Amino acid sequence: MAKVESILIRECGWTPERFTREIQRSRRRSQRIQSIQTHKITDFFPTVRRSLSSFTVSCGIDAQKHSRREWAALQRLRTNAKLYEKTEVAVEDSKVCAKSNGTHRRGVKRVLAEESFSCTISKCRRVEDSPNSGTSLDMLAVQTTTVTTENDDQVLVDALPYLDTEYNDADRQTALRLIDQECKIFRPTKNYLKHLPVPDFDVFLTPCMLKEQARMSKKQEMSKLDMSRCELPCPSGTSRAGDKVQWRKAIKNAKAQNEHLVTRQINLELMEEYAAESYLRRNRELEQLCTEAERELRRTKEQVMEIHARRKMAQLDAGRQLRELEGSWVAMVTNNYRMELANNQMAVANAQMAKRLRLDPAALGQLN
């Protein structure tokens, strides 16, 4: 443990007296923090506030019993993990380049990892030595979330309507803001068609239609149908009784009327013989068209419902995976807190034992 203490003192840049003070302060803080309310878990874990389970709550209760120093340690671990991932990628690229040149460099990963660890330690020192180091964990979480949001240039629309059932005012304001931005793209005015040529509205008008429009604009009555050609008058009167011209005209009119009636009779006979079957066939064709349209509509609705079902299953599966990942994340965070608490308790116990045995930790470190 003396070696571990010496490493911590060297990496954190503390003196042995400050290290002892930090251990005692952590112990007093651990005893005092037992009275924190359970509802503070939403401040520590903002990403799981909508899907808290009993396991998450129990883990969160254990996690919230620790102070700002443990939260800073967690942030250091996260930053170190991200830097280590980037380091691995850089090392792989350097290895490929070195192999292509025939000079494989070993130990690069170790050097870069140590540099990233040193960079992480320096960042953590700046956080601890900052004047705002007395802020609480919930303020640190809010600041981290704010920085992430401000750095995003675009809004990622990742709505899960079958999974997300609770929306707050901030989500509603975001949606309204997106709608306003979309509406600003096109704002129609009274003369928004001024860039188009004036249409020719009279292009499809015939002379008969123009004549009728002129009559309607003057509010004149429409000429009635002339029924005189359907009448069959005979010459009457003494003056026309012996007029052969008038009688020939009447006979000609009678023959025309007779031909017209004969044509109507032929049409009626043909209709009586063939119209029924023709109308029935037409009705069957219309029924077939209607049936095909209904079948196509039903098939389209089934496809839409199938798409909705697939989307719902995909979102529910994604929600299950998210809950599992969040649960594992909370478990790992809790385990990290527990391990650090155990390390601190062991360090305190070792310090007390060294004090009781009147041993110098620095001297033991030099002996090791």
UniProtKB/TrEMBL annotation:
Coiled coil spans: 276-310
Q: Which InterPro entries match?
A: SPF27 (IPR008409)
Q: Which domain of life is it from?
A: Eukaryota
Family annotation (Pfam families): BCAS2
GO cellular component terms, alphabetically, are: catalytic step 2 spliceosome; precatalytic spliceosome; Prp19 complex
Where is it localised? Nucleus
**Keywords tagged on the record:** Coiled coil, mRNA processing, mRNA splicing, Nucleus, Spliceosome
Q: Which GO terms describe its biological process?
A: mRNA processing; RNA splicing
Family of the protein in this entry = Belongs to the SPF27 family.
Name of the protein: Pre-mRNA-splicing factor SPF27
Give the source lineage, highest ranks first: Eukaryota, Metazoa, Ecdysozoa, Nematoda, Chromadorea
